[in-house]
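DATA CLASS: polypeptide
GOAL: derive structure tokens

***
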Amino acid sequence: MFEQLTPIAQDKILQLIALYRDDPRPDKIDLGVGVYKDASGLTPVMRAVKAAERQLWEAETTKTYTTLAGDPAFGAAMVDLILGAGFASRAAAIATPGGTGAIRQALELIRMANPAAKVWLSHPTWPNHPSIIKYLGMQMAEYRYFDTATGGVDFDGLLADLGRVAAGDVVLLHGCCHNPTGANLTGSQWEQLAALLAQRGAVPFVDLAYQGFGDGLTADAAATRLIAGAFPEVLIAASCSKNFGIYRERTGVLIALTQPARTDVMQGNLNFLNRQNYSFPPDHGARLVTMILGDASLRVDWMRELEELRQNMLSLRQGLADALRSATNSDRFDFVARHRGMFSRLGLSEAEVLRLRQDFGIYMVGDSRINIAGLNAASVPILARAIAQVVG
């Protein structure tokens, strides 16, 4: 039987990690892997997480299962964090193994509800989005998103493409900090997009992986809240990996908004999907998040440290934009300062990206996506000078 299996192409980012690890150069720079790093290159454990873990170690009396949906308090806390007040009666939620698990369960739910539904993705998008959709055998289409010439959003192209969405189609949206480009819609553009999707009868599916990494916790949730208030049915997949720094705990949530009278049915279907895939979701990370969000002092400290992370990335963005302007004697890369989140797509060719890796030990994804958080004050000018040489 197993001789029928064929080799699977290695994930490009994982392949990049391996290449970086095997590079002996001491001055190499890793801008590929999507995790936050401090100035020393460490992905730290946040203070509030450490404090919550100490409390949990003292107070926890059992390791038994929670529920198929996970601890209901976790779902409620995440609904409140993402959507604020007024949505509890419409919301069903399940804990998932990371944001990826939430996306997978959302797609499973879509397929179960409407096998003929087409899922629309931004071009470009996070590579796991189309990968999972193809694996599930679902229909897929793309809408224009990134304008390489300006480093911004091709909003006219986006509207034109999504004007072809059919009723019942699902449109996957990045709630903030678009991955891989870093280019985001304005508030006015979100309003126009919501009106178009409502007119077309689409079902929005929001991937919210970076709340708090862009313009702040509340500002980063604004688009998701706008969508939630404008549509009777919305799916939201959220990750706690980045904003709580608990990557390896695999903590995510899938929130499904529906009519209040249908919430119990929706919750039952979500529970069923968890049962089919992994039964009970992991609890440790979810419990830490619940403790932090439910404790005033822990929450304040978490928000303070999250803001420190966000400000650090903004500072690195501005520093890189300034260094690139100086090194290239042009404003070609000024958009880096306008982008938000961990990522920016620089608009370099694959040949230029390859030369950066081979000649300068600078590792980024082949489409020139860089992780801003992989930089520090010392590496910013090094990267700028190398890019200037490559594009010059």
